[in-house]
Structure formats: C-alpha cells, structure tokens
Amino acid sequence: MPETTRADMIVHEQEPYNAEPRRSALAAHLVTPVGTFYSRNHGPVPQVEVGAWRLQVEGLVDHPTSFSLADLQEAFPAHEVTATLQCAGARRADLLAVRDIPGEAPWGPGATSTARWVGVRLADVLGRCGLAPGAAHVGFEAPDRSSGLVEEVRYGGSIPLGKAQGPEVLLAWAMNGEALTPLHGAPVRVVVPGWIGARSVKWVERVVVSSDPSANYYQAKAYRLLPQEADPDVLVAGAGFALGPVALNCDLLSPEPGAVVEAGVQSLRGYAYAGDDRAVERVDVSTDGGRTWAQAALQQDDGPWAWCLWSCDVELSAGVTEVVVRAWDSTGALQPRSPADVWNPKGYVNNSWARASLTVE
Ligand code: MTE
Predict the structure, then answer these.
(1) How far is the CA of 103 from the centre of ligand 1 (A)?
(2) Is 260 exposed, middle or buried (0-12, 13-18, 19+ CB in 10 A)?
C-alpha cells in the first residue's frame, strides 16, 4: 500500500501528506511501527534515487567533501539510537480551542513517535571534514519545495555545533531495521534526538557549517515561538525565538478521550517525554479533575532519547470522569497547567496538562 494511503491514520492534509496515528495505535508499541509513525511534510515528498544521492559537507570545514551512501557506510561506524521525534505542532488542537490559529493543522498527540534509527554520527563526519575557526552552527538543506508559501522555499534548518557533536545525532538510513522509506526521508535523513522534529531534516543533501544559525525559512521565520500579539501572516526573520529542545510533555493515549468505559478498575495509558538532557521522573494521574493524584508506573527502558510510556490502574465509578495527566522532569519542572498559558500565534509547544472526559457506565 502506498505510504500516503494508510487507512488507519488521521490525515490532516493529503498533499502535502500530513498524518498522525490514532492514540490507541500509538499506545500499542514502545517502538512505533513505520506504518504507524506520524508524517509531517511541507511539500511533495521527493523520490530521491539512492544511486544519484550525494551528501555535500561544506562551509566552515577544512575539507569540503561529497559522500555517497556507500562512502558514509564504509568510512564511519554505524550506530543505532532509539529516539522519539515530536513535531512542535503536536497537541495544537487544544490551543485552537483557546483561540484560532489560521492555516495550521489541528495536530493531536500523535505527532509523536519513536523508532530505532541507524546511521553514522554527524560528529564523525564533521570530524573527518575538519572544523574551521568560527564554526558554531550546523545547517541542513533538503531538496523538497514547500507548498503554499509566497516565497520559493526549500526545506532546511540548523542546530548549534555543540548539539551536532553529540553521539546521538545521526545521519540515518534505516528505521526499525529497514531502509528509510521516501516518506520518512530516504535515502538519508538527519535525526536530532531530543529536539523538535523540524530539525531532523529528511532527504538531507547538504550540511553547511557556519558561524550563525541557518537563514532558511524554517529556522529564521517558522518554528519560532512568537509573542502572543505577533501577526503570524507577516513572519519576520529572527522574531521570537527558534525552537530547539523539546519541552516536557505527556498525554493520555488509552482509552481515547470521550470513550465510554465500564465501571471498576481501568488501566489508563499514555506517554510522557522530556527532550534533550532531561528525563521524565514522574507522571501524576487524576480522575477527579485534578483534586487528587496517583502516580503512574513508568516504562522507559529504551535509553535516554526515547519517550516513556506510563500506565495507571484507577477505580472508576459510574458518571463522567475528568482525567488529568501531568509530568515532572529531572530538573523538578512540572508542565504548565492550561493551554491558555502557552497559546502562541503559530500554535507550537502545547505542553500543558492532558485532560480527557470519560463516560463510565
Ligand atoms: N525535512 C524535510 N526535508 N521536509 C520537511 O517537510 N518536516 C520536518 C522534519 N523534517 C520536514 C523535514 C518536521 S516539521 C518534522 S516534525 C519531521 O520531519 C517529521 O518527520 P517524519 O515525517 O518522518 O515523521
């Protein structure tokens, strides 16, 4: 079945293809099957021939170099990292309920998925090319052209050199033991664990080391947290601040909000995720709208870059139950309480407490 006709996905847009799995599908696996993994595209998915593909490494490097996939695989050791990708627009649907965000899709919690990625370390490739004085940021460029923008834009972005040199950042060619599919960036994509999905550039063809962040639209104008009063129709380069590390977040995946469930003991399940160098330490679950809390059991045996799945057995009696879920991270930070606290003009980073009503019969 073509990747873009997966019947079980919630499709926000068919072209460009933007889709997320249902909560129940996401809840079923610690590592998300490729066919269930969300997909976020700003333009048509390019079909890049692996034989014709090259990666050009240039900018502030001593030895600008062009690599084929075989060059990368022969020259550097392969590494596997289990990492969660989360789109900065995940859970935007709850921000839309606060105030409209024209032109942005109502993503739910499913714009979050976890895979085992295999590739070479970006740090190894940069080391081989040699960093020149002034190197401070690493930019990525891809061939896909964005749909629906006034400007003619190809996709790109950058990360600071310090993050780029982390052992977890990969130029990946495999996902869950198989070659990347076109939808997820074949033949090679960047994987930046712990940072917003936007920085994990698919179909990457140029790595540019420079003294400044990338001037690409998706770094300089989009994927930035703008002040509440900013006009999202007039995006100004450098306005607000660029998003990088993922914010502490969580949601309920099973049962689905709005579900009708039986009275008695029910197992509530979901995910929590803390980006970059933080870990999820605690997930609290309330079945009385946040008056009292129980602690969920955490399952996070897939390393520091993967999400944490949580579960909590609760006793429910007949009526309408308001479930609230909130996570704490290793810095002692707690998620913000309400979507109204974090509303912003482009609808990014809704990491407020998760709330769901269940009807208990
Ligand atoms: N890379 C390219 N070239 N083009 C894109 O549109 N979307 C980004 C990122 N990399 C994008 C891209 C965004 S916003 C996200 S959240 C992730 O890819 C999604 O990766 P996935 O489609 O494999 O889930």
Answers:
(1) 18
(2) exposed
Does 144 sit in the ligand 1 pocket, CB within 6 Å?
Answer: yes
The low-confidence residues of the chain, meaning pLDDT below 70, are: 1-2, 5
**In the chain, how many H helices and how many E strands?**
7, 23
Residue 196 CA: nearest ligand 1 atom is 16
Does ligand 1 have an atom closer than 6 angstroms to the CB of 40?
A: yes
The residues, any chain, with a CB within 8 Å of residue 222's CB and separated by 6 or more, are 198, 235, 346
- pLDDT, tens digit, for every residue of 58-74? 999 999 999 999 999 99
Between CA 183 and CA 169 the distance in angstroms is 20
Q: Quote the DSSP letter at residue 248.
A: P
Helices (H), 45-189: 69-75, 92-96, 122-129, 161-164
Query: Comparing C-alpha atoms, which of 174, 202, 201, 178 is closest to residue 117?
Result: 174
Q: Which pLDDT tens digit goes with each residue over 211-258?
A: 999 999 999 999 999 999 998 888 889 899 999 999 999 999 999 999
Amino acid sitting at position 137: H
